[in-house]
Protein 1
Amino acid sequence: MDLPTLWFWIIGALFVGYFVLDGFDFGVGMSLPFLGRDDTDRRVLINTIGPIWDLNETWLIVAGASLFAAFPEWYATMFSGFYLALLLILLALILRGVSFEYRHQRPEASWKRRFDTMIVIGSVVPAFLWGVAFANVVRGVPLDADHDYIGTFVGLLNPYALLGGLTTLLLFFTHGLVFVALKTEGGIRDRARRLAMPAGLVAIIAAAVFLAWTTLAYGSPLSAVIAVAAAALLIGSAVANLRGKEGWAFGLMAATTALAVATLFASLFPDVMPASNNAAYSLTIENAASTPYTLGVMSWTALFALPVILLYQGWSYWVFRKRIGRSFIEGAGASTAGALH
């Protein structure tokens, strides 16, 4: 395997990590109106991701930086052509992060409701638009001979991309509900488990249609195998949730999300940005990659840095592994280490 191909799959793995980890963050944010009956419930929900949400988002930073360094042509075309969509994602992520930090700064209920609404919006918008963006990358977009995007923002909102956005939205919502069931106790846990069933059923239908469309229109034998595995694991997660096996349900849901993203990258390979108007204008792994020297330096850096990142993140999850409930919030007082209020 040459270095450009290696880095294509490394970047794919980084985006897999981001969507798996920040995916359930988005799901928790989207669950606030459904599971949070009062402020204490909402504080419990926010505290399930309080110590880890910003750590999960670092995967996006690493993935974006790696994309910029390893495939500058791909980065330039994607971030210029999808500028408005990616700007909306960035603004939504800022909105969500600010809300986590500021909702507890004042005691008024109206103050907290406004920031809770911002958390929901800041979770829904990225969950939907990431699916739209990556579906368009797989489908292909109009490019000119210089590999510049020559379409419009409206052109990105095609039926396949919208279905991709709906699929990621539903997968992340279900992922978040399963995570809440795993991390909480009492009534919130029960409500999360119950809501995960209809949400999971709708997600199964949307994901099945989207993955089938992807495989038939843009896929390869490899992507077909991965898509079938993703569908099977999604059904397995629903069954595990129904039986109250929350650890299994969460693990299978994480694997489903990982394989769904892997399906997109397997369908894309060996292109990185297909040109829908003229295949000769497509960006491929070879013509979009940096120099061998750059990729070599990146490879040695990743060899030492990635294990450290994985170990640190694993340690963080282990430290904050315990369930929380209303008693955790009610007994927290004015300050709780590692928690958001």
Protein 2
Amino acid sequence: MTDISVLLADDHPLMRESFRALLDASPGFTAIGEAGTGAEAVRLARQHRPDVVLMDVRMPEMDGIEATRQICAETSAVRVLILTTFDLDEYVYAALQAGASGFLVKDATAAELLNGIRLVASGEALLAPRVTRRLIDAFTKQGKPLSGTPRGLETITEREREVLTLIAGGLSNTEIAQHLHLGVGTVKTHIGRLLHKLAARDRAQLVIAAYESGLVAAQGAGWNSN
């Protein structure tokens, strides 16, 4: 199995050095470059096509949100994992819209960081329930505008709608299976169909589709679980 290639994008050299030291010491990972600005992150992502970009939000020249948008617009093969100073970062929703596949808090443990990179590289989304609950709060409290029903939503089945609602609530596949009394394999099949029908690249985009369509607010299921 080939190593997971990671591009490190952060404007603090010490932060990049610490991430590189961790990756260099961990089998299965390769740090293929470092970027100190958003513009440099876009250029290096275009040049090296890493599996994952570890992206800080606040950077000079171009912030991490715009860099994520440009990288994800160019290719679906490169996944972006956003680094936030706090899990209540106000940029969470914008980063998801830009194409980010997940979030990590900067004080995450080494194990959490490596597991997050593996998860995102495999095509999953790293969205903790506390993050998805904050997104829903943003819709209800701030009245974020809806963009209308995402293309393909009218084609999903009632069971797929239930699965999508629970995904938007931050539930894992195992938790969804338990909630709906299904096998985990069946849940994965439903998710695969949702990805296809909604033309979504990963689980994070399914979350955005559920929020923007009003599905979560309309059904109110799943997202308030601990």
